[in-house]
Design goal:
The protein is mainly α and 127 residues long. It is built from 5 helices and 3 strands, in the order ααβααββα. The chain has a 3-stranded antiparallel beta sheet with strand order 1-3-2. It is globular.
Length: 127
Amino acid sequence: MKTLDEKTTKAMKKYFSVQKLGIESKLRSYGYTVPYGLVILKLGMTGGMPQKDLSEELWGTDSTDGATKTSQAVKAAIGHGLVEQSASETDRRAKYVSLTDSGEAAYSELCGIFKEPEESAAAAAAA
């Protein structure tokens, strides 16, 4: 297994740290928090899912903080008309969440935001 030298490792950490900050500022420029953006992205990728499963996939199991972040982001997205919530077909107590048509448009827009750093990272790795 090939290991990276210390200088390369530091450069990579700095690069990805800057990219992370860039993503967060881009999300904020669209009025999105990171949890809000992640909810839209995950629902766009999956076509919808039970809210509990969404929370677990984004933040891990047994994460009360993650459940709160997901709930707040879903509630905000519903208020903006990007997400709809319905009773699960298999468990009436569970909430199923999916994107509306406006949510699909927001998903496409967010894919562009997150694609830019990937392209930059690929170019940096190839250099």
